[in-house]
Write a structure and sequence with these properties.
The protein is α/β, with parallel strands linked by helices. The protein contains 13 helices and 14 strands. The chain has helices at 15-28, 41-48, 52-65, 125-138, 153-167, 182-196, 211-217, 258-270, 325-338, 344-355, 358-384, 409-418, 447-462, and strands spanning 68-71, 75-78, 176-179, 200-205, 221-228, 231-232, 241-244, 274-278, 302-307, 319-322, 389-391, 398-402, 422-425, 437-441. A hairpin with a 2-residue loop joins strand 5 and strand 6. Helix 6 packs across helix 9 and helix 11 packs parallel to helix 13. Mean pLDDT is 89; it is low at 83-112. The protein binds pyridoxal-5'-phosphate (PLP). Pyridoxal-5'-phosphate (PLP) binds at residues 114, 116, 181-183, 208, 245, 250, 278, 280, 307, 309, 314, 319.
């Protein structure tokens, strides 16, 4: 059994966090080796003169992070070698995605995934664990039964307040349905609207190629409408409804201009038309004041879909739809028929996380981090590759790069991916032809790696016309 030297500062508070942090550093630094058995919680609590619950919390945190394992009859030990580190650290060598070369990425292995994905190594594990713990120790057993398919009331209450405060939305809890993310929210809304009449749905061109099959599967007939420097070209809109990304268009990154916002409202009110607002990354806005959502301007015409995917983690699969009450009720019923609703423990945990300020705090921290990363990437591009036109940098987690003459989208994408950059070609997202372009996510690209990555891209692309 290890005799531990743990220093805590009683004036600082957060004793469980301090203990966890000391243990984590000891494991990382090799002072505590794999397999080492830790003192029983009661003994360590006595040694440190803290309550046993505090030590339990610290151990549980490290178990959740994969540093410790706990077994009945054996106690708690440092995770043995074979399984150590898999929980919090990315593996040293990435498995290349299909079609990618095996070249070692200079930026590390873990910048893959979608260009819009957040940096998951900063998931607020401790605070989220505290929220889940709170839920598990306080909710009555009956709360774990089948929940309201529209979502648990506590979460709808908290979210309504959050969306009013942060997105200038016009919502009350009865307008909200909790769903498994923007993708599911859009599907459900389209199913409901499509029951009333076959739906001709305008979509931005270019648009996320992942969304197209989802929209079609929901029964919509898609009508592409061009996007220009001001966002969706509203004069060319047709259809019964439109799905739009006004805060940060995907993929171009354009913020819908104020005249276009007004024109879009007029279009909706001129007929019995609906705007589906995809607010996928609106929390991250760097240079200007946040633009309120469209839903706040026209709550009877706009259906707002958002999620925690970019703010916290896509894997949580938690999101919301804000709709006029009759439509919200229809979406709620559709969710009940489809799969009986979202997991309740996570919903209660998110309600607690919002209520106790964890969500705001995490967002503030990540906004600062992402802003530094974006600045580093944009600066490196300006210095090393001035011929690349960088756009869409006001908000979100990706930039849109228009490529110079002779640069091929697929080759650029492959070169960037080999360097560890999360990149996608824009061509497959277009209905009508447009300039060669790619999107590059910067959420997982540390600022000090940006210049190296961009220089690598320059070297690779400088040879592209030769072979
Ligand atoms: C533009 C856009 N909308 C919606 C989504 C889906 O988001 P969610 O995880 O909330 O379903 C994504 C995901 O990458 C996206 O890029």
């Amino acid at each position: 059994m290890a005799d531990l030297h743990i220093q805590i500062n009683r004036d600082e508070g957060g004793i469980a966090g301090q203990i966890a942090s000391e243990l984590r550093e000891s494991i990382r630094g090799g002072r505590l080796t794999p397999g080492t058995r830790l003192p029983a919680t009661r003994d360590l609590a006595t040694d440190l003169q803290v309550s046993r619950g505090v030590v339990v919390e610290a151990y549980e945190q490290l178990v959740a992070e994969g540093f410790l394992v706990s077994k009945v009859g054996v106690g708690t030990q440092v995770t043995p070698k074979a399984t150590a580190r898999t929980a919090t650290r990315p593996k040293a060598s990435p498995r290349p995605e299909p079609g990618h070369s095996n070249a070692a990425p200079v930026c590390g292995p873990y910048y893959g995934h979608r260009p819009t994905s957040p940096d998951l190594s900063h998931f607020p594990r401790e605070r989220w664990l505290a929220s889940v713990r709170h839920v598990l120790t306080t909710v009555p057993s009956d709360a774990l039964d089948y929940g309201d398919p529209g979502g648990v009331p506590e979460l709808r209450e908290e979210l309504a307040g959050y969306l009013r405060r942060v997105r200038a939305a016009d919502v009350r809890p009865e307008n909200l349905v909790i769903v498994g993310g923007v993708a599911q929210g859009l599907s459900l809304v389209l199913h409901v609207l499509g029951r009333r009449r076959p739906l001709r749905l305008a979509v931005e061109d270019p648009t996320s190629h992942r969304q197209v099959p989802l929209l079609r599967r929901a029964g919509a007939h898609l009508v592409p409408v061009p996007v220009d420097e001001e966002g969706l070209d509203v004069r060319r809109l047709s259809g019964d409804a439109v799905v739009v990304t006004p805060a940060h268009q995907y993929p171009t990154g354009v913020v819908l201009s104020p005249p276009r916002r007004a024109a879009l409202m007029e279009w909706a009110y001129a007929g019995d038309r609906t705007i589906l607002e995809d607010d996928y990354d609106a929390e991250f806005r760097f240079d200007r004041d946040p633009v309120g959502c469209l839903q706040g301007l026209a709550p009877d015409r706009v259906i707002l879909s958002g999620s925690v995917s970019k703010a916290m983690a896509p894997g949580l699969r938690l999101g919301w739809v804000a709709a006029p009450p009759d439509l919200a009720e229809a979406v709620r019923r559709a969710r009940g028929e489809l799969d009986l609703g979202s997991p309740v423990i996570e919903q209660y945990a998110l309600a607690h996380f919002l209520r106790t300020g964890g969500y705001d705090k995490h967002l503030r921290r990540m906004r600062r981090k992402y802003r530094r990363r974006r600045d580093a990437l944009v600066t490196a591009l300006a210095e090393e590759l001035p011929e690349v036109r960088v756009k869409g940098i006001d908000a979100g987690l990706h930039v849109y790069l228009e490529l110079p003459d002779g640069w091929d989208e697929l080759r650029t994408t492959r070169a960037a991916q080999e360097l560890g950059l999360s990149t996608e070609p824009v061509g497959p997202m277009r209905e009508s032809p447009g300039p060669a372009a790619v999107v590059v996510g910067f959420a997982r690209l540390p600022a000090h790696k940006a210049a190296e990555a961009v220089r690598g891209l320059k070297v690779r692309m400088s040879g592209q016309n030769v072979d």
